């Protein structure tokens, strides 16, 4: 069995997802398949002995979509990431190098992305010779992996599709505007006579109908093969009826009795242009989750310093093997996962755990790739490389979360699934009734009324109903610091029943601050803090930095330090004039022969409250202790209270210990705490909540939150967080104010209410006239539907929808009174 994730193209709605999944799952040899609309990808599990990816692609193409399969790398092609080629000058240097090499046939350089594609003759020159020549010039060439090449190819295809969509949108919008001007001389009396000519209007409408609108016909055919009707069906039927009715009237007006003839080119063109506008807006938002994966992969170190044959070599990450001894210097990223075999240091693991305090690493401790080394140096033995590293597992979790996240059924599609069959039944009944019971010419009347029903059932407002509400809603959100990536997020957020907050950096500020100062040796608190801060000024440890910030905030004078010594894992010692100061844990004090027992109970209290405390000794005697903790953000309590008022459950998810997590939760009013959860398990915790029927929003800011953000029904990232979290989320809060998450939910509720109202008005006027279009008045008054009534109904419904959507611009969110100053952890 093979399990793989492959990009898929052509998806536009939840119905597309169901059709593609059904086609795949019904294929012999495919065990399971999950299609993700947002990521535009499909996760397929298949039996390689029965079917391969090429055959699976054929099945998908038959369903109306396509897979982007990885291409085999040509034997005579070399794809490189050339580090250092970051300017036109350096690009010119690489250009000259490659031109000077015999056997290099051609090459393309992308200076912006530091990449090169080189075609060469393997009989004349080897890959290693090309890379050595580039390296000798001071650059660092790294061969791109197959996955990186596939990602680049997918990105290029997506960009090409978006360009084509925008081209069709521009062409149809311009054409529709010209047709509307020419079709409405009573509104546009200045319209030139040429533009009012029906033949000219037909020429303008034809490419819009069959070039710009081709995808609607393809979607209709694909749905019909599975016995389904969607928005594409409604658009294709309605616009085709309007187009061909108008075309027939243009070339054979004698077929239309009385004043029943008319042109509706403006209707068909406007509907296509408006729907394409909505598709363009959605296309910009789709695939963002794959950007998150690219950013995750970008966190890796590009190279590793490895000991081999008695010397240190800089090797590409792909060449690091298990049991290699890797050297890590101060400030460098750790390239792969392993175990420390020599030296010690502190490592910033916030990327993995989300916690702000660095972790001390000594002999036999595990280190994780992509985390950042502190001020020490050490060596470690590589234990996990390539796809087995923790970072690679996080990438896999994000991909799997994308694949398992079911798309929502859009309101317009739900309505279309009932409305289209209903209209077809009415239209068919109209045709049969007029054909068998109508006056002569029966066939002409039957066809005209059949088409009239189809035309009246496809109002222009249909194209405006959802896009206008979403555009105004997202615009209103942006004005208030809420960036919503697509309509789906806005359509889901109103159903949220549970909000899960990450702790560090989300509910809390993400950096330690001094919370308590305890003096026990006769020193005043200010003096104790000044001495401690003076000693810590030379330290790079976050606790030391917090103490220095606290002293600076009080404008305390910090005396100069004449001697400083960092004792890894224990604390520091410093000489300040004639005063000897030691700061650290109880082990440090024991080594100096100082009794820490007098403050042990207070230290235990701080620990129970989730605080980190350090002892301070002055001139060989215990002088006091200083407690440091992550502090709660100003609006956290207010945001939680507002969510409770909306009837939404609130939980906290963190990798921190249960004691600290419980203390934070108590401060902000959260009653459900999920503590000591590893990054890999965060998405599983979200799944459990979803399995219990909850509609979950996850609010986070870190790389470790990415899988949970993708898994949640709505992922909300704090804008001050990492790029990966922002890319993995559906909604980004620009300001560091969690009340914006509440505002996003409230805005979603208002927007959905507006969309429902719009859809009602989009159909109301026109469906009310369906009986008239079917000829129900003919036996009583002898009149059939006049084009004037159809045009009027369309104009009124469109105007109603636009004005109703604009009401969202006045949407106001009332916050609770501030819960007071930020609390302490």
What does this structure look like?
There is one protein chain. The protein is α+β, with helices and mostly antiparallel strands. It is 48% helix and 20% strand. The strands form six sheets. A seven-stranded mixed β-sheet has the order 18-30-29-28-19-26-27, sandwiched between helices. Strands 10-9-11-17-12-15 form a six-stranded antiparallel β-sheet, with no helix packed on it. Strands 20-25-24-23-22-21 form a six-stranded antiparallel β-sheet, with helices on both faces. The longest helix is centred in the N-terminal third of the chain and has 38 residues, at 146-183. It is elongated. The protein starts with a strand and ends in a 19-residue tail after the last helix.
Mean pLDDT across residues? 80
Major β-sheet profile:
7 strands, mixed
Which class best fits the helix and strand makeup? alpha+beta
Please tally the helical runs, counting DSSP H or I stretches of 4 or more residues. Answer: 31
Report low-confidence residues grouped into runs of 5 or more: 814-825
Helix content: 40-55%
N→C terminal distance? 49 Å
Overall form? elongated
Strands ordered across the widest β-sheet: 18-30-29-28-19-26-27
What is the topology?
Blueprint: E1 2-9, H1 14-25, E2 30-36, E3 41-46, H2 53-62, E4 66-67, E5 77-83, H3 88-99, E6 104-110, E7 115-120, H4 127-136, E8 140-143, H5 146-183, H6 193-196, H7 198-212, H8 214-224, H9 231-251, H10 265-285, H11 288-297, E9 303-308, E10 311-316, E11 325-328, E12 337-343, E13 345-348, H12 350-353, E14 359-361, E15 366-367, E16 372-373, E17 378-384, H13 390-404, H14 411-437, H15 442-456, H16 461-479, E18 482-484, H17 487-493, E19 498-502, H18 503-507, E20 508-519, H19 525-536, H20 542-553, E21 563-567, E22 571-576, E23 579-584, H21 586-591, H22 600-608, E24 612-618, E25 621-632, H23 636-645, E26 649-653, H24 658-668, E27 672-674, H25 679-691, E28 696-700, H26 706-711, E29 714-718, H27 723-728, E30 731-733, H28 739-768, H29 770-774, H30 778-781, H31 787-806
Parallel strand pairs: 19-26, 19-28, 26-27, 28-29, 29-30
Antiparallel strand pairs: 1-3, 1-4, 2-3, 5-7, 5-8, 6-7, 9-10, 9-11, 11-17, 12-15, 12-17, 13-14, 13-16, 18-30, 20-25, 21-22, 22-23, 23-24, 24-25
Helix pairs in contact: 5-7, 5-10, 7-9, 7-10, 8-9, 9-10, 9-15, 10-16, 11-13, 14-15, 16-28, 16-31, 17-28, 19-20, 23-28, 28-31
